[in-house]
């Protein structure tokens, strides 16, 4: 896990951290997709969450038949949930979660969980998942 400040320059650090984990663990998913999804989730927290820190975690859970590969981004603002916005040609924002939905197999939000302790708190975890079936 890496702890980031809610500042624009931190998104790259978080993205690179997750890419290192995915590479070291040899995730069988497109590394560029993982990088884009991670950056979008972090940038969403930076731009919209009322928080003094952002925690980013990446992990996998595998068995003989499939592997689950997960990126989680925690912030302290459980009241402000991310939602996909309607797309428009003129809009400058609102495309990030559409990218996440297109590149990951699933994404979602868990409100009221601390990413370190799994205890109840006022924050949220926004996650993206890739499920890979083994032959």
Automatic annotation (TrEMBL):
Q: Sorted alphabetically, which InterPro entries does this protein's record hold?
A: Anti-sigma-factor_SerPK, HATPase_C_sf, HATPase_dom
**A Gene Ontology molecular function term of the record:** ATP binding
Histidine kinase/HSP90-like ATPase domain residues are 13-107
Q: Which Pfam families match?
A: HATPase_c_2
**In this entry, which stretches build a coiled coil?**
none
User: Which source organism?
Assistant: Actinomadura soli
What keywords sit in the KW lines? ATP-binding, Kinase, Nucleotide-binding, Serine/threonine-protein kinase, Transferase
Recorded protein name is ATP-binding protein
